[in-house]
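Progress against Task 2.4 (sequence-to-structure conversion) is shown through the following example record, which the project officer requested during the mid-term review.
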Amino acid sequence: MDISERKDLQEADLQGADLIEANLKGAHLEGAKNLSFNQLSKVKTLYATILDEELLIPLKEKYAPLLEKPDK
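Structure tokens generated for the chain above:
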């Protein structure tokens, strides 16, 4: 899944969304509903992604490489 074309997912309901290997580079996910830490931990990248603090802080602690600029 590549979200790079549709970046504004504010208020989107992501319950049950399969985000495994999703490219969320630059996505605006602040305020997204039913988005979990578990879902985000399985994505390809979160570089330049806007997230709610309650998800961003633990992701920085446990999965910091997801927030770094990808090689490609």
